Predict the structure.
Amino acid sequence: MRNKFGDILWGLGFIAIGVGFAGNTFGLWDFRLFFNGWWTLFIIIPCIISMIQSGVNTGNLIGLVIGVLLFINSNGFLPRHIISKLIFPSILILVGLSILFKGSFKSNYKVNIHKNYVGKDGYISITSIFTGHEVRTVSENITGGAVTTVFGGVDLDLNNAIINKNITINVTSIFGGVNIFVPSNVNVKVSSIPIFGGVSNKASQSDFINYPTVYVNATCIFGGVEVK
């Protein structure tokens, strides 16, 4: 349900932007996307969605703090030299808190290792913010997944997963990269929203009617997704 809510937030965001520009056409308002610090939203929003989908962890909390500090800096709410000096101590404080309160800042993934993690319902949820994850499933029945990267990377290996029905994997890649490895006994269908990014489907196409289909829905903003 939390993963679905994250998708709803992304959808509403794009709808709001589209309505804003449409209103400009009819002279209803003066909508401007590129305000001071607009680019920091590509850090702030995914971090908030990550918190909703996967809970608060060290990665998304650090990303959110950095995004907010950069937004404040871009709008001149505080002197620039103060903001630049706050970023590093803020990271140290958050890392220290995560060590002291490991039960409060939960993380389902470890950096740069193969991690066999699937929810009880067979749903995979991966969030990579300013880091990298290598996730390999082994003999689990997969029902779908959600992958979010922000200035990070994810390798999701499904070669040894059990996929016996159609599944959907929703991918959001912002200034990041995602590689998805699928077994040979599935069909792959890709749909994407590329914004200065792209999706590549290099998986072998079997097109057997009896094979399940892996649907990859990707949103790429200065990022890339590759299915192999």
Confidence is low (pLDDT under 50) at residues 104-116.
